[in-house]
Write a structure and sequence with these properties.
With 278 residues, this protein is of the alpha+beta class. Helix content is 40%, strand content 29%. Among the domains are: 52 residues; 121 residues, Immunoglobulins (Immunoglobulin-like).
Length: 278
């Protein structure tokens, strides 16, 4: 009986099935064409990981480029602001220079008038028999006082700018109160652009007004101004496709009483702005 058990155990042991081998768990992607041809991509995990790495690198590069672009925009804005400030400083310095030059001219005129008064006083002291001032001396005093009166108001920086993209013609100049101690000066200003000196129908007047003998008939229609130091007078005309036809420009400045303070002509030099590029 014991031999039978031993033989049975031995037979069972000999017929134990072998253990199954481990299966290969690798993945493959199969693409099937219309014609039945199959394309196999082994190890798709590596492909996915590679694509993920490329995507991360692309996203990081995009945000890095965006940061650099914003930094460049900020730098450009700062440079533009610095340029505007520099231009304003240049304009301010130029205005101060013009004002100092005007004051210098006024001071020289006053010195000349003072010297003339001293000479007149000396001549009166020598000629004791003269009880009334000579007419010639009165005329000289009037002539000396005249330029000082005209120099109370002057002008500078006349310019014409044409915008070809909008056909807009800009005209501007500066009115300066040359007398330091006088109250503010008020009045009305005109500008006339002339194509032909004799044909008034070709003239362009700022602002629009009828003309008599080449001058504004109604001074009150001019652009009003009131200045303590200076003011920039600006005019604008629309739909001017051919501004180069104008050859000369004349500026008229009237006081509020109608007195003509300035009448000055200039050759026309038109500057063109750079068109906007979009």
């Amino acid at each position: 009986m014991e031999d039978l058990s031993r033989n049975l155990a031995k037979v069972i042991k000999e017929h134990i099935p072998p253990k199954p081998s481990k299966r290969d768990r690798s993945w493959s992607i199969l693409f099937l064409e219309d014609r039945g041809h199959m394309i196999s991509i082994k190890k798709p995990k590596m492909v996915v990981i590679t694509l993920a790495i490329i995507l991360v690198i692309a996203i990081v590069s995009f945000f890095w480029s965006l940061i650099i672009f914003r930094s460049m925009i900020e730098d450009n804005k700062n440079l533009s602001n610095a340029l505007d400030i520099s231009r304003q400083e240049v304009v301010s310095l130029r205005d101060e220079k013009d004002l100092l030059m005007v004051r210098l001219v006024v001071a020289e005129a006053k010195i000349k008038n003072r010297d003339a008064d001293i000479l007149t006083s000396d001549s009166k002291a020598i000629d004791k028999t003269a009880s009334l001032p000579d007419k010639k001396q009165v005329g000289e005093k009037t002539d000396l006082a005249g330029p000082e009166k005209l120099q109370k108001t002057t002008m500078a920086d006349f310019s014409i700018l044409f915008e070809p993209d909008t056909d807009v013609l800009n005209v501007q100049f500066k009115i300066i109160n040359a007398s330091q101690n006088d109250p503010p000066v008020s009045g009305h200003a005109f500008v006339i652009l002339k194509q032909n000196k004799d044909d008034q129908s070709t003239w362009l007047t700022f602002p629009s007004v009828s003309l008599v003998s080449g001058k504004p008939a109604n001074f009150k229609k001019g652009q009003y101004f009131s200045i303590l130091r200076f003011k920039i007078i600006k005019f604008k005309a629309q739909n001017e496709s051919d501004p180069k036809r104008f050859k000369t420009a004349t500026v008229f400045v009237f006081a509020t009483t109608g007195e003509l303070l300035i009448e000055k002509s200039f050759p026309v030099e038109i500057k063109e702005s750079v068109p906007n590029q979009t």
